Amino acid sequence: MISVVILGAGNVATHLFKAFTKSDEVQVKTWYNRDIDKLKSYKNDVYITNNLALLKEADIYILAVSDDAISKLSSALPFENKFLVHTSGSVSVHTLDKKNRRGVLYPIQTLSKDAEIDFSNVPLCLETLEKTDLKTLKNLAEAIDSPYYKISTEQRLTLHLVAIFINNFTNQLYRIGHEIADAKHIDFNILKPLILETANKVQNMSPYLAQTGPAIRNDEKTIKKHLKLLENENYKEIYRLLTHSIQQTHGRKKL
Amino acid sequence: MISVVILGAGNVATHLFKAFTKSDEVQVKTWYNRDIDKLKSYKNDVYITNNLALLKEADIYILAVSDDAISKLSSALPFENKFLVHTSGSVSVHTLDKKNRRGVLYPIQTLSKDAEIDFSNVPLCLETLEKTDLKTLKNLAEAIDSPYYKISTEQRLTLHLVAIFINNFTNQLYRIGHEIADAKHIDFNILKPLILETANKVQNMSPYLAQTGPAIRNDEKTIKKHLKLLENENYKEIYRLLTHSIQQTHGRKKL
Ligand SMILES: NC(=O)c1ccc[n+]([C@@H]2O[C@H](COP(=O)([O-])OP(=O)(O)OC[C@H]3O[C@@H](n4cnc5c(N)ncnc54)[C@H](OP(=O)(O)O)[C@@H]3O)[C@@H](O)[C@H]2O)c1
Ligand SMILES: NC(=O)c1ccc[n+]([C@@H]2O[C@H](COP(=O)([O-])OP(=O)(O)OC[C@H]3O[C@@H](n4cnc5c(N)ncnc54)[C@H](OP(=O)(O)O)[C@@H]3O)[C@@H](O)[C@H]2O)c1
Predict the structure, then answer these.
(1) Mean pLDDT computed over B140-166
(2) What top-level branch of life does the organism fall under (chains A, B) (predicted)?
(3) Quick check: A225 and B171 CB within 8 A?
(4) Predicted TM-score of the model (pTM)
C-alpha cells in the first residue's frame, strides 16, 4: 500500500485523487487546499484540511499546484526528509525546497476537472533525485495503471514544449477551422470525423508518412486559391508558414 | 438498388468500391482505370476495364481521379445525359463536361488505400446541378451509412481549406513534435495519448473552450523558455505565430 498526501484542488489534483481512490493499492491520507471550500464535497471520502500543520504522514506528498506556487508552498511545509513531488512539465525539480527529498510526477495529458479520463491514457514522466524514490513513483504509476517513463529534467522541458505543439497549437488549428466554417454557415460537426482520424492515423504510422494534401503535392494552384479565400491576415500567415514547413520537411521547393 | 460505375483506382475509388460492395443497396457495374493492372486483383468481384467505350449503364458515374484529370476524363466519356460526379474538394462542378448531368460527392476524410475506414466516419458533401440527382446521391450515402450534407460550391471550397488546417497542418504539428522529441531521445509513443485526447476533447466541446496552456494563460516566462529551447527558426516562427493567434482569439495581449 502506498500512502499519499495531495496538495491542491485543481485539474491535476482532482484527477489524481479520483485515480488513487479507485486503486486498491493507494491510500490518500490527506487532501489539502488553501481554499478548503473546493474540497468540501469530498469530506466524506478523505481527510481534508487547509492547514499545513495537519497533514498526515505519507510515502509521497504531491504538490499539484500552479507552477508559480510550487516553490513557496514547498518551503512552507512543516516537515523534513519526506518525499515530495510536483506535477509540472516546465518547473525544475530543484525549485522544490531541499529540506525534503524531491521528485517530479508530470502527467502528459490534457486534464480538465469536468472531462473524465482513464489513467491508462495518462503517461507519467518520472524524475527523482534519489534512486529509491523512483521505485516509489513507479509503484504508484503501476497502482493506477498509468504508463510511465523515467525522464530527465531536460527531456521533460522538451516534452512540455512538444505538448504545446500537439495539444495547444493543434487545438488552435481546430479553432481556426471552426471559425472559418462558421463564417460560411458550415456545421463544424462535418469536420469532427476528420479531426479524429488525423489523430488516429499517427497512432500506428509516423506523421511523416501520414502527410497528404496540396503542400506536399506542391499543388500551387490550390495553395493560391486557399490564400485568396483566407481573409484573416494571421490565418493567411499560418497557412503560408505551415505549408512552407511541410515542404521543407518533405524536401519540396520553397513557396 | 443504385447502380454505379467507378472511374479511377486510387485511394478514394478503392474505398468507395469496398463500401459499395459491402452494401446490399449498391451495385458496381464497372470499375474503370486507365491502367488496368491496378484493378487486376478485383477482377473476380467486378467487371473491370480500361476502355471507356465499354462502361456499362449506371445511375451514377463517379470520377474519383486526380483533380487535374477530371475535366479531360469527363470530356472523353462516350455518352450524354447520364449523371456524373467528381469527388474533389477544390474543383468546381462546372469543370465536368456539360454533356452529362453533373454533381459532386466529396468525402471529408483522409483516405489512404492501406488504412481501413468505416464509412459512417466519412461525411459526404453533396452537390448537384439538378434536384432529382441530389436525391440519388442521398440514397447512395444512406446505402453506405455515411452522414451527408448538401453543400454549395463555395462551402465546399471552404471545407477543403478547413480540412487543410485540421488535417495537413495538424499532422505537420505532430511531425514537428516527433522531430523535436527524437532529437532528445524521447519516445514519441509518450505523446500519442495526448494527440488522441486533444482530438477527442473537441468532439463534445468547442475548441475555444478546450484551449489551455501558456499562451492563453499569458505565461511569458514559459513562452520565453520554449522559444529559447527551439533551435529550428521555422519552428520558432510557428511557435510565435500560433501563440499570438491563441492570444488574439482569447483577447489576451499581443506578444
Ligand atoms: N491541467 C493539465 O492538463 C496539466 C497537465 C500536466 C501538468 N500540469 C501541471 O500541474 C500543476 C497543476 O495544474 P492544474 O491544471 O491542476 O492547475 P489548476 O487547476 O489551476 O489548480 C491550481 C491549484 O493550485 C493552487 N494554488 C495556486 N496558487 C497557490 C498558492 N500560492 N498556494 C497554494 N496553492 C495554490 C490552487 O488553489 P486554489 O484552489 O485555492 O486557488 C489550485 O488548487 C501545474 O504545475 C501544471 O503545470 C497540468
Ligand atoms: N485521398 C483523400 O483523402 C481524398 C479525400 C477527399 C477527396 N479526394 C479527391 O478525390 C480524387 C481522387 O483522389 P485520390 O486520393 O483517390 O487520388 P489517387 O490515389 O492519387 O488516385 C488518382 C487516380 O486518378 C487517376 N488518374 C490520374 N490522372 C489521370 C488521367 N489523366 N486520366 C485518367 N485517370 C487519371 C489515376 O490513374 P492511374 O492509377 O492510372 O495512375 C488514379 O487511379 C481527387 O479529386 C481528390 O482531390 C481525395
Answers:
(1) 97
(2) Bacteria
(3) no
(4) 0.94
